[in-house]
Amino acid sequence: MFMYAVNFNRTEGRLIYKLCEARKEPIMRQKKVISDAVIERLPLYYRDLLLLQDAGIDIISSEKLGERLGITPEQIRKDLTCFGAFGKKGVGYYVSELGQQIVEIIGLQQHWKVGIAGIGHLGWALANYKTFGRLGFRTEGLFDVDHRIIGQNVGGIVVTPISEMEETIRRAGIQIGIITTPASVAQQVADQMVAGGIRGILSFAPIRLNLPPHVYVFREDLSIGLSRISYYLTNKPEQDE
Fold this sequence. Notes:
Order of helices and strands: HHEHHEHEHHEEEHEHEEH
CATH class of the largest domain: Alpha Beta
Distance between the termini: 24 Å
Strand content: 15-25%
CATH architecture of the largest domain: 3-Layer(aba) Sandwich
CATH topology of the largest domain: Rossmann fold
Shape: globular
Function: Modulates transcription in response to changes in cellular NADH/NAD(+) redox state.
Number of domains: 2
Structural class: alpha/beta
Protein name: Redox-sensing transcriptional repressor Rex
Number of strands: 9
Subcellular location: Cytoplasm
InterPro entries: CoA-bd, NAD(P)-bd_dom_sf, Rex_actinobacterial-type, Rex_DNA-bd_C_dom, Tscrpt_rep_Rex, WH-like_DNA-bd_sf, WH_DNA-bd_sf
Helix content: 40-55%
Family: Belongs to the transcriptional regulatory Rex family.
Strand order of the largest sheet: 5-6-4-3-7-8-9
CATH superfamily of the largest domain: NAD(P)-binding Rossmann-like Domain
């Protein structure tokens, strides 16, 4: 679950960055193009900074941060330089200050409203993912077609019929949609989300969604990750433990 959360946060960070860019938030008015790879790493930095704060650590160097995340200190410094000057030479980064700056860069200070369609095992897990709130995401709607699930309270939200999703999205002002439905209905669900006003979608359905260009879509495919692991296990020589 921990590794899965890492991948999700990286994708979500990229989605939020692009949504803020589209809305022309002041902090996002960058003259140079920022690569997706940099944007994906920002949520990793932020989440680890939260852990450091919880541990009572006030200052950390790029070397120590890199050791914790498996990223070179040079890469961390290069990533942060894309957005300005951070830290103090010979001292390091002030944990709280850097965390707040990353919040503003990504756009997490806005408390994005999220709706999840498909409350099966994966949707249920995401609805109960407590770290969402701390990362700036607030689940405001859960949707499904199964009458056995509709009306249930999941993570503090009552599951609504998917037939009411468009209206609920519009009424609640939901900005981000997460799709965990079967592939056969994912396109229809995405269309309903867009009709309700959503402009950012994170989809776990293993199909390509065809949506208007103003809608940012990112796909998380767990089978691809598992296939990569299979490749390395098959093709890389075993190492002594």
